[in-house]
Amino acid sequence: MVHVNEELAAAQWRKSSYSGDDGSNCVEVAALNGGRRAVRDSKDPGGPAVVVGSGAWVAFVGHLKGC
Prior knowledge:
Elements: H1 4-10, E1 13-15, E2 27-31, E3 37-41, E4 49-52, H2 54-66
Antiparallel strand pairs: 1-2, 2-3, 3-4
């Protein structure tokens, strides 16, 4: 099993299309093994990331689409 920190270091991060071009409110998301997703602040790529399971991610995105 891959350690989470190793998985995050190797992840392909995508910047949210809703993030501003001025460097503020920048959120990045990476797909991880098992359908999990990691979310981090792009201004602090070495900082913490929130990792959520696939069910939580689907519910989160579904809620955002419903807003």
